[in-house]
Design brief:
Radius of gyration of chain B: 15 Å
Largest sheet of chain B: 6 strands, mixed
Oligomer: heterodimer
Strand order of the largest sheet of chain B: 2-3-1-4-5-6
Number of helices of chain A: 13
CATH topology of the largest domain in chain A: Rossmann fold
Number of strands of chain B: 6
Shape of chain A: globular
Radius of gyration of chain A: 21 Å
Shape of chain B: globular
Distance between the termini of chain A: 41 Å
């Protein structure tokens, strides 16, 4: 049965059902409902909700709980995620599973509280120091906030890595009907966890290697893991791309607005299509290339001033002109604005973009 | 069918709840629904608005530029949003608080004295339910029973005793709209 839930609350409930029993966070708009919901929900589920004294404290509590083998989550928005970067780098270095949620708002600095996608670089380029990568999942509706939260916990455990869920203020605040997953049985035992070593060999969790050769070996192993994630976990969704002369690329809630613009363009006889990366890292380069097979031009639309567009260009290897349209600072692009951009490109490459009569 | 509905007024008038109930009732009738609030440093007495989208198909954009219908609860919201109603669309406004008549002549207008009618229903706070009843009467979009079922789900336990008055408020709203519709036909 479907229930009507706010994105933030649906994500929080999904986390509990996926086995998350520990949450450490610090409030910030537009994601505070996650904390609020878990403060009510976790104690009754035998878990712990803790509002830490700061984001830095919260992420280090996540580090500790993850080391002890717990399914653990923290959430924030851009300014708080910036504060957490040191901890995230440590957790990635120590190879611990956890889920981090960023419900983005406009930046830089304290910015504003309205929706944005301007943390794409921070999310996909590390953010913290050192050679690490985070799987980054980008939901575009409330159901996906639920489904990708469950996936995030599984990926985190499978690859022993922090996983980032990158949403935005629209998704966090909006309500849609969702199907919640059944409550999961306990997660598999983590034999590497530091749970007390009586009767077994000691487990050590660290990101510190004084010997350069040791640290290189550690890094090579991390890189091997990142290659495996890249090969197996890239996800994306195509809409009307089969004959698309103009391919729009967008993620998250922007992709929904772009989808409406693509539909409007189709109604005008322009063969537009949409490709939506679901994982931002690994970036679904192969899927994008497949979606762009018939394209004469690509239009990347983001709620920022051009971040994912760099990955789009890299993935397409500059074979196609890649244009960009973005709004920032908490302003959301309208269907009409994107439609007009599509029409411009549809005009430039008219021959290739018109739908052929049946 | 794609209905993109704006509900706007003061914080505390039940603006967000009205949109929530529409979305909930839509879900109960197996439609696709989305509810998007304005969020910000808003408080009781400040302005508030939300959008509810009800559709037979997947809802693409959660961001609406032009609304098919608007339920406007106060004067500042009328000024802010009157221009953003689609030609041929519908505007239901709370004539208890909005003493001026909207400028638009290309939309259907329904003045509803929501505060007075709520008082008559025995629950001053239910002006939003009067508006909701009027809106459903004007559009036939959803069954009033679905809205009542939705209200039963979302209302806090200590407010359950207000359910009959809420139902009465919806009836007052729909009666007011019926009367206007009859007058329009006659006039």
């Amino acid at each position: 049965m479907k229930v009507l839930m706010k994105g933030n609350e649906a994500l929080a409930e999904a986390a509990v059902r996926a086995g998350c029993r520990y949450f450490f966070g610090y409030p910030i708009t537009p994601q505070t409902e996650i904390s609020e919901y878990l403060a009510r929900r976790l104690p009754g589920a035998g878990g712990v909700f803790l509002q830490a004294e700061s984001e830095v404290a919260a992420i280090n509590m996540v580090y500790g709980a993850a080391g002890a083998g717990a399914r653990v989550m923290t959430s924030s928005s851009g300014p708080g995620i910036s504060l957490k970067q040191e901890g995230i780098s440590y957790i990635a270095g120590a190879e611990l599973p956890c889920v981090i949620v960023n419900i983005m708002r406009g930046g830089p600095g304290l910015g504003g509280i309205q929706p944005s996608q301007s943390d794409y670089f921070q999310a996909t380029r590390g953010g913290g120091h050192g050679d690490y990568r985070l799987p980054v999942l980008a939901p575009s509706n409330v159901q996906e906030l639920v489904d990708l939260t469950c996936l995030a916990f599984d990926l985190a455990d499978e690859y022993r890595t922090p996983v980032l869920i990158l949403g935005d203020g629209i998704l966090g605040q909006m309500m849609e009907a969702v199907e919640l997953p059944p409550v999961r049985a306990a997660a598999p035992e983590k034999t590497w966890a530091t749970t007390g070593c009586r009767g077994r060999a000691k487990n050590v969790i660290t990101s510190f290697f004084m010997d350069a050769a040791d640290l290189e070996r550690h890094n090579l192993r991390l890189q091997e893991k990142y290659r495996a994630i890249s090969a197996r976990e890239a996800r994306g969704e195509s809409y009307l791309t089969g004959d698309a002369g103009v391919l729009v690329v967008a993620f998250g809630s922007t992709a929904r607005i772009a989808k409406a613009a693509v539909r409007a363009a189709r109604a005008e006889g322009i063969a537009a299509g949409l490709f939506r990366p679901v994982t931002l890292w690994p970036f679904p380069a192969e899927l994008l290339n497949r979606a762009a097979l018939q394209a004469g031009a690509v239009l990347t639309v983001e709620m920022n001033y051009g971040q994912m567009v760099e990955d789009v260009r890299l993935a397409l290897d500059c074979r196609l002109p890649v244009h960009f349209y973005g709004r920032g600072g908490g302003m959301v692009p309208g269907v009409g604005e994107i439609f007009r951009e599509i029409v411009k490109l549809g005009g430039e490459t008219r021959e290739r973009c018109r739908v052929k009569p049946a | 069918m794609l209905e993109e509905i704006l509900v706007a007024g003061f914080g505390g008038q039940g603006v967000l709840l009205t949109g929530h109930l529409l979305a909930y009732a839509g879900m109960l009738e197996n439609r696709e629904v989305a509810w998007i609030p304005s969020y910000g440093a808003e408080m009781r007495g400040g302005t508030a608005h939300c959008t509810t989208i009800i559709s037979d198909e997947e809802i693409f954009s959660p961001v609406v530029e032009q609304f098919s219908s608007a339920l406007i609860f106060n004067r500042p919201s009328l000024h802010k949003f009157e221009k953003r109603i689609k030609p041929g669309g519908l505007l239901l406004f709370n004539s208890s608080l909005i003493r001026e008549y909207p400028q638009r002549s290309d939309i259907r207008l329904f003045p509803v004295p929501a505060n007075e009618l709520a008082a008559r229903a025995g629950l001053d706070r239910a002006a939003n339910m009067v508006m909701l009843g009027g809106f459903l009467e004007a559009t036939g979009l959803l069954s009033p029973d679905s809205v009542i079922k939705a209200l039963e789900k979302v209302i806090s336990p200590h407010r359950r005793h207000t359910l009959p008055a809420n139902r009465q408020a919806m009836l007052e709203g729909s009666r007011a709209v019926r009367t206007i519709a009859r007058q329009c036909k006659a006039g």
